[in-house]
Write a structure and sequence with these properties.
single chain, about 110 residues, two-stranded antiparallel sheet, signal
Length: about 110
């Protein structure tokens, strides 16, 4: 004989779980940038997240053969020698050039 049982789920708990899922999908819904590598090219629009990294290392770590290289250059081997912090902020405003004033907020 098979045993069956049912579990009662409270309506407020179910509503709270649905609200959390809805808010999470709305928060992630605007981010159309799927590139998470700080060394890769990506197009970013307002509301997207973008990834950048900060390498903590001495000045000499960025030179190879007397030439200063990009932190993304694999010849440096920074991944094995230096700590890296990654950040993924969301963009809120873009300016076309440094001389363009921000829009008026009156």
């Amino acid at each position: 004989m098979a045993t069956t049982w049912s579990r009662r789920v409270s309506v407020p708990a179910l509503a709270a779980a649905a609200a959390v899922l809805l808010l999470a999908s709305v928060a992630a819904g605007d981010d159309h940038n799927g590139v998470y590598d700080p060394c890769a090219d990506a197009s970013v629009q307002r509301g997207d997240g973008f990834t950048f990294g900060v390498v903590f290392s001495g000045r000499d770590s960025f030179f190879s053969g007397g030439v200063q290289l990009s932190p993304c250059d694999s010849r440096l081997g920074l991944a094995n020698r230096a700590p890296l912090a990654l950040y993924r902020p969301r963009s809120t405003r873009f300016r076309s050039s440094p001389s363009t004033p921000p829009p008026s907020t009156r």
